[in-house]
Amino acid sequence: MATRELMYREALREAIDEEMAANPTVFIIGEGIAERGGSYKVTEGLLAKYGPKRVRDTPIAEAGMIGVGVGAAIAGARPIVEILYVDFAMLGMDMIVNQAAKFRLMTGGDGRVPFIMRTQGGTGGGVAAQHSQSLEALFYHIPGLRVVMPSTPSDAKGLLKYALRQEDPVMFLEHKHLYMTKGPVPDGEHVVPFGVGDIKREGSDVTVIAWSNMIPRTLEAAEALAAEGISVEVIDPRTLVPLDRDMIIKSVLKTRRCVIVQEANRRGGVASDIASIVQEECFYEMDAPVEIVAGMDIPVPFNLTLEKASVPQKEDVVAAVKRVLHVQSLAAAAE
Amino acid sequence: MAEAILVPQVGQDLTEAKVVELHVKLGDKVKKGDLVAVVESEKASFEVEAFSEGVVISLPWKVGDVATVLEPLMHVGAEGEVVAAAKTAVPDPVQTAVPQTVHTPATVPVSATPAPVPTPAPAPAPVEAAVSGGDRASPVARRMAADHGLSIGRIAGTGPRGAVVLRDVAAAVAAAPAGGALELRTLQSGQGTPVVFIHGFGADLSSWRPLVARIGLGSPMMALDLPGHGGSQGHGAADFAALVDAVGATLRSLHGGVHLVGHSLGAAVAAALTERGDLDVRSLTLIAPAGLGASVDGDFVDGFLSARSEGALAAWMRRLVSDPASLAPVLVRATLAARDEAGLVPAQTRVARGVFEGSTQLFNVAAALRAYRGPCSVIAGRDDAIVPLREIEAAVPAHVALHRLDRVGHLPQVEAADLVQTVIARTVRSAG
């Protein structure tokens, strides 16, 4: 299939543009998204094309914005609410957790909440503790929410288009470090369904599961390990809810070793839950305990050196892979 | 120069062993290979053999004493020599390692054939060694070892803190004899055509020691471990024909004739070997032979394999004998310990599935027995609950001597040892 090189942010814009053109109930609101085209330029040009009724700036009032979005979704529209930092989504947690996530069940299945919250998280550039968090575990924990974390332009476009066609509240979590990254995006209609992971690199010695900005970092680690003769399979679930369990289990049964990399801090994280799934399904086929490489259990530091030290780096992934392959103990035994 | 025979290291972390049998007293002459004592730990008993010729010149222990491992159990030297001159013979590492790692009851090997050398364990880093357990292994390593009939305890681990990981099992599988030689040991040296003993299902070559010691033939007495048993547990033979092939290949390595003595499944293997034409079988003594009828006690096979406690195993092993009192508790303990320590159950289960189907024997050697023209004796107990005597009687041809023993079960060599020794000696001698 023919592809074009697009930036992550351009791919997102294409998805919104195409779906707004196709479906008049799609609209987008957020801080500075209309006149300014968004802080990350995702919505550039949409105001001119679709007008202020469908592309609308809001005050700095996240609780109100999310409430508007959830209410509009219940009323039959397909709202996209852009929250500048996932950290600020905390202001709207009642609407997300108690209303959006529950409404379909509490109406006996009649109600639908196709509410999309587009936001971004993660470290990158010293924006400190209140602008650097990876909070996917909070949403992952709440039944009724979809949690999407694209790592490439292609996935970003395909998953956002799918989000705008399905019926449940979606936490669409982008990464501030990825907006300027480039990658091939298929021409024409490109939709990526939820719950289907992607093997970003095939390998045979160890399965590394990562998502969002940990994917490029893990791919760098895999490249370095390949030079040492270690074959790493990199799996990107792309959506944490629903999770492609089958792909993960199949891969681990093949490689017999598993490392999970998350930028979020370790405690209570998604990686821990995936690790429990892996041990439950693959224990008797495994050659080493599951390793988790995660952020430290601390607020993300402002100082750039400390920020870097607080989240997984390429070297951390390399070291974890070697641990599950018992590389050190072999070297020690050979002495 | 006097040498000390040391109390064997009876387990990884054990410092003491109880002296349960002493086969020599002060002043007795011993020669290399003689069984001199049996000591036991909580888990297993260990036979101790002399590894040099001489006279017992010191014997500080009596039966029931608790001895310190690797201290002298006794000294062997020249007549009149005093112990003060004795040096402590430190057995080389291979010898000391064998009793811990090979099947039990184990011995300090003195056989003509080399003892099985456990894969040398690479020395782990000092800190790791301090905490390394006996059989740490990754789940998949454990499963794959079981699939191949290998014991985790016998594989050197290169994983964290000495754990056995996948690559170690893969290396062990690659190194294991696919169809190679079985464990073959000389129990007693001698001159002439060797007499080779083949044990039954679930036993091993050491089960012949008490019998062999008193047969009174000058021939070399040898015994082997069937595939999946004792030191041959890694051998992958999985049906009767494969067992016969494996034993045949091993015996051909002796380059000459053999007298065969077999018990139960081992007797059937011995009979089948006479048919092959590539092995000169001079005589055949079959004890409670399998393979002559269709029936076997399938409940016994299942129960024997699945028993995990001494009580449960004893309950099943009592079926082997007519008089429960003839089943020594030490035999049950040794069987259990050997299985636990070497992890024999998966390998033996594989063999059982290959030769038995429920209560049916999947092999028959009656035709081989009819065709065999050498001296041949069959010994069977009237109270055999495992292989019924009536089926043996029906299949034994007229030219073969059949000894039917009253108040004897499936183990005539235990319950009627004197008679079995006599019959073996007579059968071997009649071959000339």
User: CATH topology of the largest domain in chain A, which one?
Assistant: Rossmann fold
**How many structurally independent domains of chain A?**
2
Q: Kindly report the spatial arrangement of strands forming the biggest sheet of chain B.
A: 9-11-10-12-13-16-17
**Most extensive contact:** A-B, 14 and 18 residues
| Overall number of domains of chain B | 3
> Treating each run of at least 4 consecutive H or I residues as one helix, how many helices of chain B?
15
CATH topology of the largest domain in chain B: Rossmann fold
Strand content of chain A: 15-25%
CA-to-CA gap between the ends of chain A?
52 Å
**Averaged pLDDT of chain B:** 81
Radius of gyration of chain B: 22 Å
Question: What is the quaternary state of this protein?
Answer: heterodimer
Contiguous uncertain segments of 5+ residues of chain A = none
Q: Beta fraction of the residues of chain B?
A: 15-25%
Provide a descriptive summary of the structure in words.
Chain A: Pfam families: Transket_pyr, Transketolase_C. Chain A: Keywords: Oxidoreductase, Thiamine pyrophosphate. Chain A: This is Alpha-ketoacid dehydrogenase subunit beta. Chain A has helices at 8-22, 46-50, 62-74, 93-106, 136-140, 153-163, 214-226, 245-255, 270-282, 304-310, 314-324, 327-334, and strands spanning 3-7, 26-30, 55-57, 78-83, 116-121, 146-148, 170-175, 182-186, 198-201, 206-209, 232-236, 239-241, 258-265, 291-295. Chain A has 335 residues and is an alpha/beta fold. Chain A has two domains: 3-186, 3-Layer(aba) Sandwich (Rossmann fold); 198-334, Rossmann fold, CATH 3.40.50. The longest helix of chain A is centred in the N-terminal third of the chain and has 15 residues, at 8-22. Chain A starts with a strand and ends with a helix. Chain B is of the alpha/beta class. Chain B has three domains: 3-101, OB fold (Dihydrolipoamide Acetyltransferase, E2P) (Beta Barrel); 126-175, Dihydrolipoamide Transferase, CATH 4.10.320.10; 190-430, Alpha/Beta hydrolase fold, catalytic domain (Rossmann fold). The A-B interface holds A 256, 283-288, 326, 329-330, 332-335 and B 122-125, 128, 138-141, 143, 158-161, 163, 165-167.
